[in-house]
Amino acid sequence: MFKKWDIIIIIALLVISFIPEIIFGFGMKKNYNRTYAEITVAGKVYKKIPLSEHRGEDIIDIKTKFGYNKVIVKDQSISISESDCPDKVCMAPGYISKRGDSLVCLPHRLMIEIKGDQNEDDDIINAY
Predict the structure, then answer these.
(1) Whole-number Cα distances in Å, 54 to 61, 79, 89, 90, 120
(2) CATH code of residue 66
(3) What pLDDT digit, counting tens, does each position of 88-122 carry?
(4) What is the per-residue pLDDT across 21-35, written as a single tens digit (0 to 9) for each?
(5) How many CA atoms does the CB half-sphere of 123 hold within 13 Å?
(6) Residue 5 lies in a domain
(7) C-alpha 110: how far from chain center
(8) How far apart are CA 23 and CA 6, in angstroms?
(9) What percent of the chain has pLDDT over 90?
(10) Does the residue 128 lie in any domain?
(11) Under a CB-based contact definition with an 8 Å cutoff, are residues 101 and 112 in contact?
């Protein structure tokens, strides 16, 4: 019923039909889930750090009139490793990396929040 060239043409058309998905689909998804950490001190943006593309380890020393915090950015996550606040609660959560996560040092008025374009689990509420 089908000749040799009919089958070759059908297979070639099937392969060609997936090329736009390969070119646009994977590239769009990669760019769509970008995340960054926004560090604010006393309600003002101190620094924005892109996390999706981050590799390695960076140390950020934050010295303000409210106090000192040492922030570590490791690969695609961020944490407060040192603080001169009295209770040190801000250091307890460790590293955060998911959109919506936050670290707060109330005595120093420091907040680190993970933000981004879109996340796969938007409808899921993470409770710790």
Answers:
(1) 18, 14, 26, 23, 20
(2) 2.60.320.10
(3) 898 888 899 888 899 999 999 999 999 987 645 55
(4) 777 766 555 555 688
(5) 0
(6) no
(7) 19
(8) 27
(9) 49
(10) no
(11) no
